[in-house]
Amino acid sequence: xxxxxxxxxxxxxxxxxxxxxxxxxxxxxxxxxxxxxxxxxxxxxxxxxxxxxxxxxxxxxxxxxxxxxxxxxxxxxxxxxx
Length: 82
Hints:
This protein has helices at 2-25, 28-50, 57-77. The chain is mainly α and 82 residues long. It folds into 2 domains: 1-51; 55-82.
């Protein structure tokens, strides 16, 4: 786990160096959007570092979006009349 954590720290440090100036200039919505885009990366990184048996990102999205997707599919296949 220590080697994996070190590898992740090096990668995120490289990202910080490469994007540091851009991130410092970000304000408001742009900063929030960047943070939201980083969440899946951090989730996958946590799985990698901990070698956890958590659902992968596609599996997680499938679990979260299955119910709304099924409802939308039913709505569209009924011609939009519920």
